[in-house]
Write a structure and sequence with these properties.
The protein has eleven helices and eleven strands. With about 270 residues, the protein is an alpha+beta fold. It is globular, with a radius of gyration of 18 Å.
Length: about 270
């Protein structure tokens, strides 16, 4: 069922272009800068840009990771790092007064070319959606984006795709992918939306979950496209923010506190490099 139908009830491409193994990092940086231009939080914006560039950068010889960057300790590095184009999970390391962030893999020429194509696909779709929704009100715009994501993607039960761009290109992604894609497309189209990390209050308490919050005409709502798409349950779609705490527990605290929470939940994805 399409999201437009659900909302009505409750409320009444990959490019064919070939890319060389040596990615054009300047072009990727320009794309990332444009996609994140409406993000006012400098930490999230810089992490997003750096992550896209890192996904098309070769690792240093002998290293198992690809450097993203070094940042001031901020819990947003952990909770917002899902909103990037990279296919791969992250690794974190406290180095003095900075946090070293890396992609948890050493990029090869093959996956650099693949990631570059993923990013171009994302940008192409984002521009088309921005044009399509230019004259829509905020709610219609958000609904269109959510409908687009759920129509073109499904949940990846193999947990192979973590980022927004891989999900858009392959049609499969995890909760991070759903939330990241809604965030990137929403921000690019002028919506005030964020990525939120936490876990469900019922059911499994051993895994992290990611969803979105969005401000529509001055009212904050939450959007959990993963749960909506897999369960076809409208309680996860554009619901008042007051209901959020009935379903989820959000991760809060400083960098060290949030890192320890993530590490306990899924050591594989949240490790030190």
């Amino acid at each position: 069922m399409r999201i437009g139908q659900i909302v009505a009830i409750t409320a009444a491409i990959v490019w064919g272009t070939s890319f060389s193994a040596m990615a054009d990092q300047n072009t990727v940086r320009a794309i990332a800068t444009d996609l994140y231009a409406n993000e006012n939080d400098t930490t999230i914006r810089q992490l997003g840009i750096d992550s896209m560039v890192a996904s098309v950068t070769k690792a240093n010889p002998g290293e198992w990771f690809t450097k993203v960057g070094e940042y001031a300790p901020d819990a947003k590095l952990l909770m917002s790092s899902n909103a990037v184009a990279s296919t791969y999970p992250y690794a974190f390391a406290k180095r003095g007064d900075k946090v070293f962030v890396a992609l948890a893999n050493a990029n090869t020429e093959e996956n650099i070319a693949q990631n570059e194509q993923y990013i171009h696909t994302l940008y192409n779709v984002a521009k088309k959606i921005k044009t399509k929704t230019a004259n829509m009100d905020e709610f219609s715009k958000a609904k269109y984006i959510a409908d687009y994501i759920c129509t073109h993607s499904s949940y990846d039960y193999t947990h192979s795709n973590y980022g927004a761009a891989p999900m858009l290109a392959t049609g499969r992604g995890t909760c991070q992918s759903y939330a990241a894609l809604f965030y990137i497309l929403g921000r690019y189209c002028g919506l005030q939306t964020n990525v939120v990390a936490g876990q469900f209050k019922t059911g499994s308490v051993t895994t992290n979950h990611t969803w979105n919050e969005i401000n529509i005409q001055g009212k904050w709502m939450f959007v959990d496209l993963t749960s909506f798409d897999t369960k076809q349950d409208a309680q996860y779609l554009f619901q008042p923010i007051e209901k959020e705490s009935q379903i989820y527990t959000q991760y809060t605290g400083n960098y060290d506190q949030v890192f320890e929470v993530f590490k306990k939940k899924t050591n594989r994805r949240w490790r030190r490099c």
